[in-house]
Specification:
The chain is built from 17 helices and 26 strands. It has 507 residues and is α+β, with helices and mostly antiparallel strands. A hairpin with a 4-residue loop joins strand 14 and strand 15.
């Protein structure tokens, strides 16, 4: 197949497509294989340049990538990010007879469309949150405002409306506020709105104040843009106002473009999150070691969602019994469902789970290694990664048994000032060499660039994934933070509580 290279045992050149921390981790791990004779990364970053050769080809330029793979005699191409997978890069490589790791376009829709994924989960009986799909902002807004609020509303002052009304929904309450404050319903000045909730009464002098109170009512919902949004298209909404704002951003302002053509509103699940990554060739499933991501920007899991501010592996809450349950109730059914749909899946299957009182439920499926979970997991992998990936491509994954370092790993993401909002690029990063020399520490580059003068500068929101091993979670955490403190760049910051869940579980 492709270039005359035989799988298993042959010397191989590898190409990794992507430019983030996940791709640096892949290059680093693949380079360790005794069968790998060269590592290339397109387009890569300053970190991947340390492991091999960067190629200035964009991840979306399939023609240039396949031409390079043919010309250079690449034996295996590994696709890192979700966007080229969803756009059919694997199909493009296979049409040219090239060996490539990752799911084809039809199978990658599992991540490319949350609507497709939720509907497939429903058909396969896979546990997930209840959900509704919307194709227009007014329909979604109407659904939100139809949520139960149970407020009693009265007029106070000189109003023609004297009755007490029990309002079941937000929209009903807002309509009655407008009626009470309508000048045509008033016989004099000083009309107020009184809202009563569970016996507690509040009086408002203006409709704006009263409506603001109503829109602040609690709401346990999650809103998701249907398409790819670089990990930022998920809104955890604590009240009605946040949900309406999220609908406006996704479907009216279109901040994610076509990804906001449809959206999902689903119930908010309670529990701890975990990430389960597994290799599958469409027949056999080999789960990787468990991990846990930190999505929120700030300490104590506060602030907006990000692409991930840190991770650790293993996740102590994922017991062997729980892993067996996940494989039985989630991984096996989704692989079979895709096969039945004539979308056979070969690659990495990522299940983002919430561990609820009713058992594990799927928050999302991804079709590639998580970032930064990948960094923590690959730090612990002792097996030859090339052997495992080729076994997936050749549909002989049953031959693979992975070996793991028993020590935990912790990854702390160092981010640019302003992330996950607007940020500046081009800030010089200092002391990378000092951090790299620390015992059991690896600094994975995510958003970095090598300038012509040899300096490494920031080139993204998430800049570095500082990863460390330790005999205990406490030691791994200490090493990761010691290395992070060593590295300096203007405005650089990180969360200070990565792996706190693991520490609480293990101490």
């Amino acid at each position: 197949m492709g270039n005359g290279l035989k799988p298993g045992g042959s010397l191989v050149k590898v190409l990794v497509v992507g430019k983030g921390g996940r791709e640096h981790a892949l290059c680093w791990k693949l380079k360790q294989s005794p069968r790998v004779t060269g590592v290339y990364c397109a387009p890569g970053n300053a970190g991947t340049a340390l492991e091999g050769i960067n190629i200035a080809i964009d991840t979306g330029d399939f023609r240039a990538l396949t031409q390079f793979a043919k010309r250079e005699g690449i034996g295996l191409t590994v696709i890192g990010p979700e966007e080229p997978l969803a756009n059919g890069i694997v199909d493009a490589f296979q049409r040219e007879g090239l060996r490539v790791f990752g799911p084809r376009k039809d199978a990658a829709e599992l991540e490319g469309s949350k609507v497709f994924a939720k509907d497939l989960m429903r058909q396969a009986g896979i546990p997930t949150a209840d959900y509704r799909i919307f194709r227009s902002a007014p329909d979604a807004e109407h659904y939100i405002l139809s949520r139960e609020v149970s407020l009693v509303i009265r007029s106070k002052g000189k109003s023609l409306i004297r009755n007490t009304i029990m309002c079941r929904t937000a929209v009903e309450t807002l309509e009655h506020i407008d009626r009470i404050m309508d000048p045509r319903e008033q016989t004099g000045p000083g009309v107020q709105v009184e809202l009563e909730e569970r016996g507690e009464r509040r009086v408002f002098n203006t409709a704006v104040e009263a409506k603001d109170y109503v829109l602040g009512r609690p709401l346990g919902m999650v809103l998701k843009a249907d398409g790819l949004a670089a990990g930022k298209g998920v809104y955890v909404c604590d009240n009605l106002r946040q949900a309406l704002d999220a609908i406006d951003q996704v479907m009216v302002q279109r901040i994610f473009g076509k990804a906001g053509d449809k959206l999902i509103l689903e119930e908010r699940l309670d529990g701890q999150e975990t990430s389960i990554l597994a290799l599958t060739d469409g027949r056999t499933i080999v789960a990787l070691e468990s991990s846990q991501d930190h999505k929120r920007a700030y300490d104590h899991d506060e602030g907006p969602n990000t692409g991930g501010m840190g991770a650790y592996s293993p996740a102590p809450i994922v017991t062997r019994e729980l892993m067996n349950q996940v494989e039985r109730e989630i991984l096996v059914p989704i692989v079979h469902a895709l096969k039945r749909a004539r979308r056979p899946f070969r690659g990495v299957l990522y299940a983002g789970l919430m561990l609820t009182n009713q058992g594990p439920k799927v928050l999302e499926f991804n079709v590639r290694l998580g970032d930064p979970e990948c960094q923590a997991v690959l730090m612990r992998l002792q097996s030859d990664l090339l052997d495992a990936l080729e076994a997936v491509v050749d549909e002989r994954l049953e031959e693979v048994e992975l070996r793991w370092d028993p020590r935990p790993a912790v990854t702390v993401v160092m981010a640019s000032e302003g992330y996950p909002g607007p940020y500046e690029r081009g800030r010089v990063i200092n002391n990378l060499e000092a951090a790299a020399q620390m015992t059991d520490v690896k600094v994975f580059h995510a958003g970095t660039m090598l300038r012509d003068d040899g300096r490494i500068v920031t080139d993204g929101g998430r800049v570095l994934g500082v990863t460390a091993l330790g005999d205990t979670f406490e030691l791994a955490q200490q090493r990761a933070y010691e290395a992070a403190r060593t590295i300096r760049f203007g405005g650089g910051w990180y969360r200070n509580d990565i792996a706190h869940h693991a520490l609480k579980t293990t101490t």
